[in-house]
Each structure stands twice: as structure tokens, then as C-alpha cells.
From TrEMBL:
It comes from Falsiroseomonas selenitidurans. SUPFAM superfamilies: Hedgehog/DD-peptidase (SSF55166). InterPro entries: Peptidase_M15C (IPR039561), Zn_M74/Hedgehog-like (IPR009045). Pfam families: Peptidase_M15_4. Residues 56-118 form the Peptidase M15C domain. This is M15 family metallopeptidase.
Length: 125
């Protein structure tokens, strides 16, 4: 059994997140330093984020446990490369686990660097 690198706070924030996505994050954490910013989100919190411009959709995968936001350690929102580096590791972990994911940094029109979600195609809910 590989050692647990996620902190108790990370694990708390992953509660309710789809087990396939949790598996990917757990594997990725072996090769990259990041923490879990947020997992499951309430509809009310999503409304607040959309109203504030931090999110673009009320149909967020966070509502159903199909998305997580990960922050590089140390967290520097201006350091886009640090988000790209995490994304490469998470993508590789997803491939190793046979899980289909999409990175928010590849969304058109809106760079969502910390965001990872299970694809709608493979996980229609
Ligand atoms: Zn997100």
C-alpha cells in the first residue's frame, strides 16, 4: 500500500468526490505537490461563484462530485506554469488509472487552472 500523501484536510475536502477521481488525485500526489482546494460544491455556493465571475456555469461538475480544484504548493495564482505542471502529472495519473478527465486549463475562453473533472462522455452522471 502506497503511503498517503494527502493531508487529513485534503481527504476531508474530497468527501463525496467520485472514487475514480479520488484515485487519480491520490496517484498524482506522489509526483506533484498540491493540495485540494475544493471538491463537492453546493448549488448555493455555485450561484455565488457564478455571480462573482469565478465560475461560468450553474451546471458545474462540482455539484455532483465529478470535479475537484487543486492548488500547487506553494500556491501562486500568477504562476500559470505551476498549474500546467500539476495538470501534466494529473493527466498521466488519469491515464495510468484508466480514467477519462479534462483539465480546466484547456477550456476555451476561460482558463480554470486548478480545475479537473471527469469527462461528460465517460461519466454522464
Ligand atoms: Zn473547479
Amino acid at each position: 500500500m502506497a503511503p498517503e500523501l494527502l493531508t487529513p484536510r485534503d481527504l476531508e475536502r474530497l468527501r463525496g468526490v467520485h472514487p475514480d477521481l479520488v484515485r487519480v488525485i491520490r496517484r498524482a500526489r506522489r509526483d506533484a505537490a498540491f493540495f485540494v482546494i475544493e471538491g463537492v460544491r453546493s448549488a448555493e455556493r455555485q450561484r455565488v461563484l457564478v455571480a462573482g465571475g469565478a465560475s461560468r456555469t450553474q451546471n458545474s461538475r462540482h455539484l455532483t462530485g465529478h470535479a475537484v480544484d487543486l492548488g500547487p504548493i506553494p500556491l501562486d495564482w500568477q504562476n500559470i506554469d505551476s498549474f500546467r505542471a500539476i495538470a501534466r502529472v494529473v493527466q498521466a495519473a488519469a491515464e495510468a488509472e484508466g480514467v477519462s478527465i479534462r483539465w480546466g486549463g484547456s477550456f476555451t475562453g476561460f482558463f480554470d487552472g486548478p480545475h479537473f473533472e471527469l469527462t461528460w462522455a465517460a461519466y454522464p452522471v
